[in-house]
Design brief:
mainly alpha; Rhopdopsin 7-helix transmembrane proteins; two-stranded antiparallel ribbon; 7 helices; about 80% helix
Amino acid sequence: LRVLSFNDLLVLHIILLTQRLNDQFHIDLTMKYLWYCKIRTYATYRLYGISPYSIVLVCIDRLYRTSKYSSLRDIATPRIARKIVITIIPIFLFYFHILFQYNIIYSICHPLIFSYYHFLSYLLLVFYCLLPPILMSIFSSWTLILLHRHRQKQEKKLSIKNNLTI
């Protein structure tokens, strides 16, 4: 969850600060600098894209921790968790196309072609709105099933032990 905290700090300091400068003081650097237009747009989509997938990784970690197989439980260690955070790198690459599609048009940071909005909206719908909740539901449900089975086994062992002592 440290990734989420760090990501939230970046959202606050990069995205919201620049938005506040624009809203409060009418300082919009995206109107003047092409590099800033591209990087701010890229950072906005990338930073918002990290949060749901960090939660999916936490769900996977919990699934591994509840597994009956020690090899899977061994995966869920802090050392391995740090390595798994590297899976965030594809999110950086996934939004890389934004750097090539945005430009300053009539003093506004826009995509070069209007149909890119449609492409981006479908992309966000699938990879930001649909896929993470589906993955979270699958891994969380699987974890709950494993926990329920583990509890049933423990109760069965306890009842056998109680029957033997009687």
